[in-house]
Amino acid sequence: MAKGHILVLPFPAQGHVTPFMELSHRLVDHGFEVTFVNTEAHHSLVLSALQPAGGAAALGDGIHLASIPDGLDNDDDRKDLSKVTDACSRHMPGHLERLVAEMEAAGRPKVRWLVGDVVMSPCFEVARKLGIRVAAFWAASAACLAIMLNAPKLVEEGLVNDKGWVERDETFQLAPGIPAFPTSRMPWMDGTGTPVGQPAMFELITRFMKLSSLAEVVVCNSFDEAEVGTFKLYPDILPIGPLFADRELQKPVGHFLPEDERCVKWLDAQPDRSVVYVAFGSMAIFDPRQFEELAEGLELAGRPFLWVVRPDFTAGLSKAWLAEFRQRVAGTGIIVSWCSQQQVLAHRAVACFVSHCGWNSTMEGVRNGVPFLCWPYFCDQFLDQAYITNVWRTGMAVSPNADGIVTKEELRSKVEQVLGDGEIKDRARIFMDASRRCIRGSGSSCENFGKFVNLLSD
Hints:
Organism: Urochloa decumbens
Strand order of the largest sheet: 3-2-1-4-5-8-9
Strand content: 5-15%
Number of helices: 18
Helix content: 40-55%
Pfam families: UDPGT (PF00201)
Mean pLDDT: 93
Largest sheet: 7 strands, parallel
Family: Belongs to the UDP-glycosyltransferase family.
Distance between the termini: 15 Å
Protein name: Glycosyltransferase
Low-confidence stretches: none
Shape: globular
GO molecular function: transferase activity
C-alpha cells in the first residue's frame, strides 16, 4: 500500500525534468506513488528516449507518466523562455486541474500532494483550491532562488528596473558567503546582459515570494557545505542533495534525447583521469565560428575527449569541415549527441569537465570530485561559475576575447592549467567527500529528506 499519491510537476526544460525525476525515484523508494507530469511535447520526447530501455516501464512501478498541453502551437520555439513561461503561467493551471479530475474519474488514488517547481508556482493556487497540499522544489542553486526572492527589493533599491534590466552596473553580493558577481550577470540574464524570457520571466520572478508562500516547504538540490551563506540567510530552504539516480541500476532520469551507449565502453578503454569531458546542457547554442574554435582547441590540447554535441547545438556549420575534423581526431576523441552524464562523471577516466555550469551538471561534477573548466551560457550559470571559481575553488573559467569568442589557444591553455593544478584537484576531492557525507546516515541532506518524507506522509 503506497503512503500517498504525489503529483510531480517540473518546469518544461531538461535541467528541471532531470532533478524532478531523481527526486521521484527517491519518493518511490520511500513508499509513495508518483504521477510525473510533463508537457505533451516533452512527454513524447521522454517516451521515445526511453524506448531502447523498455519504454515507460524502465522507470519502475511507482512512477506513472502523464502529460498536459503547454499552451503553445506545434511550431512554436520551445527554447524561447518568454513564450514558454507565459504559456505555462496562463494555460497549465487549468490543464492541471483537468488532469486531476480525469485521474479521480479513472479511479486513481486521490492526489494528496503537489511537488511543484517554483517556476510553476502559478499552479500552486489550483492545487490549494483542489485541497491538494503543496511542496515546492527548486532545481537550481539556493543562492539563485535567494536572489530571485529579493527581486522586488532590488527593483525598489534601483539596482534593476521593473523589467529586470540593470540600472547600476556594479558587483552584487546578496550576503556573505553568497558569490559576488556583476549585476549584468543576474540569474535572469542571458550572456549579453539582456533579461531572458521578457517580459513573462521577470514578472513571474517578482511574484515568487507570494506564490511560494502557498507551499508548506521548499526543498532544493544542494547541500549545506556548498551554500553556507545562503542557508544561513534562508534557513527554511531545505537542501536534500546532491540528488542522483541510483548508480548500479541507472534509473532513467527523463532525458529528452536517447543516450549514446558507446560512451562508457569508450571511457573504459582510456587511462585513469585522462579524459576531457565537454558538455553544454540542453539549451546552449554555439555559432559555427565558436564551434570550430572549441573543436580545434580540443584537438590542440591533444588529450582524449568525450564531447556531447546535441543535434541542435549549432546551425550553419560546414558538414565537410565537421567530417574532416571527426576524421582527424578519430583516434583521440569521441563526439556523441547525448549521454548518461552521471555515469560519465562517475567514471575513473574523466579528468575534467568543460561545462556550461548548469546546476545539475555542477552538482554531478561536485559529487564525483571532477575539476571544472567553466563556460557559462546564460541565467544562473554565471552564479554557478562564481561558486566554482571563487567560493569552492574547484575550477577555472574560460576568458572570451574582445569579440566574445573563446579561442582554441585559450581553451587549450585553460585545460592544461586545470589539469595541472593540484590545489583544484584537492578541493574537488574535499567537496566530493562533503557532498557524499551529506546524503548518508546522519548527514544534513539525509536528515532534511527524512523531514520532507515525514511531512508528505502526514
